[in-house]
Amino acid sequence: MISTMKSTLSYLKKLELFKELDDHKDGQFFAVADQRVKNHLPQWISFSPNIFWLKHPEEDKNLEVFGNAVEFFLKQGICRSSTIYAIGGGATTDLAGFVAATIQRGVNWVAVPTTLLAMIDGSIGGKVAVNMPQGKNLVGAFHMPERVMICGDFLGTLSESEWVSGKGEVLKYAFLSREIHDLLLRKVPIEEIALACAQFKTEVVERDFHEKGERVFLNLGHTLGHAFEFTLKIPHGHAVAMGLRYLFKVMGNDDAFAEWEQLAKALQLPLEKLELGSYRNFDLKSFLDYLEQDKKKSGTSLRLVVVKSIGNCYVEEVAMKDFKAKICAHADFKNS
Ligand SMILES: NC(=O)c1ccc[n+]([C@@H]2O[C@H](COP(=O)([O-])OP(=O)(O)OC[C@H]3O[C@@H](n4cnc5c(N)ncnc54)[C@H](O)[C@@H]3O)[C@@H](O)[C@H]2O)c1
């Protein structure tokens, strides 16, 4: 099976989603699913023998569990024409998508994201991977889901920290798209914003599947974000919100920082938790070491996505030593 570069995005209420899933009730329904959302799902799924349940998706996103899942599905009789459903947050969809990419050289998969972050980012775009002891997402593939089924009804049980994480990625989209920026300031319901973000990413990926051009803008805020995620052990989107904040601060982009503050307030993000001063465990040396081995580093320079104005970004090559010097000179890092 050859992976296509398109996937269909659908927005469904829970009953509509159940109705679609129920169509597979009597056939072979294969899924990788997060145990945390079991109570959200139709009862027949809980009792289905073909579900590979994950207890701790981020911890389970590794080669060992990947191997167990592949073996499980082969034993259950999966074949080339089968589809694997991924029901859970971004860690679940990453693992399930990678399983789907490799079984019999690729079977179809459908994403049913259940966190805000997975709805707007993690489940979209066909980047699937597992973590390695050497770092996150180091083994993976490009394998588009045939379909992404977004159901906002899952969001009701998200923890505060998962909300912050999802909203952190929303914040990024508001710099990439004027439409999302304006929706956010109008404070429309989060489901509507989520759908606009998902649609935006879907379209970018359709135009630039292999990240040769505009897809790279989706990495806005991620260079510092990944380093915060690693050193502070905070959720991905939370780290991205901090990555954006400090990118603007360190690069002296005052207009973008003023927008950031306005948007973060509109999203009701806890501003104090997005400041370095709130973290006692911050280790500047390991933060800088992490930046050094950032995968976007080419030679001695970093490829940073920079905001010119809302909806208008470009990539700037910044010498690593200059960027590090700017970080070290910033008061928040100096006093950390
Ligand atoms: N492939 C990509 O393009 C891409 C993009 C961004 C992030 N990611 C990956 O996504 C992961 C982060 O995504 P995430 O935050 O969704 O992670 P996650 O899957 O670990 O979910 C976060 C937590 O929320 C729980 N959860 C899931 N749905 C829930 C619900 N409806 N109610 C209550 N709790 C629920 C999970 O059990 C978990 O504890 C990372 O592994 C990251 O690398 C991938």
Descriptive account of the structure:
The structure is a single chain. The chain has 15 helices and 10 strands. The radius of gyration is 20 Å and the shape is globular. Helix 6 packs parallel to helix 7 (160-176), helix 7 crosses helix 8 and helix 10 crosses helix 11. The protein has a 6-stranded parallel beta sheet, with helices on one face. It has a two-stranded antiparallel sheet with strand order 6-7. A two-stranded antiparallel sheet has the order 9-10. The protein has 336 residues and is of the alpha/beta class. The chain has helices spanning 14-22, 43-47, 57-60, 63-75, 90-102, 116-122, 160-176, 178-185, 190-207, 222-232, 236-250, 254-266, 284-292, 320-329, 331-334, and strands spanning 8-11, 30-34, 51-54, 83-88, 108-113, 127-132, 135-142, 147-150, 301-309, 312-319.
